Amino acid sequence: MKISNGASNNKNKEIGHIASFFSGVARIQGLPSVFLHEVLLDEANTPVAIVIGFDENFVDALFFKENFDLKKPVFRSFESFSIPVSENYTDRIVNGLGNPIDGLGAIQGKISPVFRGAPPIIAREPVVMPLSTGIKIIDTNLPLGRGQRELIVGDRKVGKSTIATDAVLNQKNAEPSVYCIYVICGQKERKLREIISLFKKHNAFLYTAIVSASAGSSFAEQYLAPFVGCAIGEYFRDNGKHALVVYDDLSKHAKSYRDISLLLERAPGREAYPGDIFSLHATLLERAAKVSKGNGGGSLTALPIIETQEGDITSFIPTNLISITDGQIYLEAGLFQKGFLPAVNVGLSVSRVGSQAQPKTLKEVVGGIRLALSQHKELQKLSQLETAVSIEAQKKIRRGDLVLELLKQDKHTNIEWQEQVVLF
Question: 156, 193, 270, 352: which is the annotated catalytic residue?
């Protein structure tokens, strides 16, 4: 979070007075000319809140801290919420406001607004450059490309975060280099400690930054964390480099925003979510892109994570994000319980970028795997109904069994795509 020295004289500013305040969520009277995402200041010119909406009577704001003297006024800064961005974020941990929490000092960089528009169509180019995850079932059946937005969806405790962390670990030897930003939103502090330990063990911090807004963080931090992570990733993309940002997870981000909206007495919609939740996530995920060579040729890839209840992908937030993204990796609890790991249901998963973002050699080798798995599933159902199965069908079932065994993989045991070519 950064405010320039130019915003320093409160005497010439509009004055706002807090009308209501609960857990850092406030409605403010005054400030008639304020704009969306503007930072508000206290009497000492210290940033204290961000504007997230307004109507003819009130300004809706999120305070960075949950305690504030309600008798004191707030003032406009005339500046949008911004952070310094640079390569200095690698090997660092920041909170949802972009402030370091690892005790290693301030992060220097070029000041950039956290809320920006997505690259226009004319500035983009097709997603054809592979992003290898090191996970066999994904690289062979659901190949990802640099600049893609691929949703990871499934019930709790089925390995969603493991897919994302393994994708980050696999970028260690990526060419060209891929810088990673891991956004933790609404999770327990224990999860942050586990991810830090994992990244340190595999030396992933050398190219990775963590943005953490845990469940105990303020509403402001939880609301801003994904956008802060996106802004850091955009720095690499806009400078001709490649970045991967993981949002873990957007279901908790949506619930946090729902709580904020209910406290602000906004009209609830489906499942009590506010009407603009789709727009909020769309503006975030549309910023992931592969830009043209004339615009630097960099890319920002997004891996949002969403949690379902009892495998229901038809509920409001999952359907929203499925419609926004370029495909989804669906993890099934039934497969997880049977010991098939990663528990990816290939039939319900899709990568809309497809094989155009797959290394040519790997594409030639694994072309029939998806068909073999589809035939295997259907023939297994048939074999349960009929006692006599043709020899040809038995061969296809055995081939499917073999492919499934080859696709099994323990967590954190990444396999480069060149090795997968030999394997298949």
Answer: 352
Alpha-carbon Rg for the chain in angstroms? 23
Query: For residue 12, with 0-12 CB atoms within 10 Å meaning exposed, 13-18 middle and 19 or more buried, which class applies?
Result: exposed
Q: Which residue in 416, 424, 420 sits closest to 170, CA to CA?
A: 416
CA-wise closest residue to 317 among 277, 268, 285: 277
Angle at 73 between CA 72 and CA 75, to 5 degrees: 145
Distances (CA, A) of 14 to 107, 236, 278: 31, 37, 32
End-to-end, the C-alpha distance of the chain in Å comes to 49
Instruction: Encode pLDDT of 102-148 as tens digits.
Output: 999 999 999 999 999 999 999 999 999 999 999 999 999 999 999 99
Q: Which amino acid, residue 283?
A: T
Q: Which residue has better confidence, 329 or 392?
A: 329
Please state whether beta strands 47-54 and 59-63 pair in parallel, antiparallel, or not at all (unpaired).
antiparallel
Helix-strand-coil split of the chain, %, nearest 5: 40, 25, 40
3-state secondary structure at position 43:
coil
The mean of the pLDDT values for the chain is 93
The answer to whether the CB of 147 falls within 8 A of the CB of 289 is yes
One-letter amino acid for residue 11 of the chain? K
Calculate the CA 325 to chain-centre distance: 11
Report the SS3 class of residue 230. Answer: helix
Specify whether the CB–CB gap between 344 and 408 falls below 8 A.
no
CATH number of 10-80: 2.40.30.20
What Å distances lie between residue 261 and 186, 219, 223, 327, CA to CA? 17, 11, 11, 29
pLDDT digits (tens, 9 = 90+) for 179-195: 999 999 999 999 999 99
Parallel/antiparallel/unpaired status of strands 38-41 and 74-80: antiparallel
Enumerate the CATH 2.40.30.20 domain ranges in the chain, comma separated: 10-80
181's tokens: 């930003």
CATH topology of domain 83-358: Rossmann fold (3.40.50)
What's the pLDDT at 379?
Answer: 78
Q: Where in the chain is the domain with CATH 3.40.50.300?
A: 83-358
Give the H/E segment covering residue 321.
Answer: helix 316-324
Coil, strand or helix: which one is 360?
A: helix
Query: Tokens standing for 186?
Result: 């609404």
Task: Average the pLDDT over 216-232 and give the result.
Answer: 97
Active site residue 352: yes
Q: How many CB atoms lie within 10 A of CB 4?
A: 11
- Calpha distance 12→18 (Å, rounded): 19
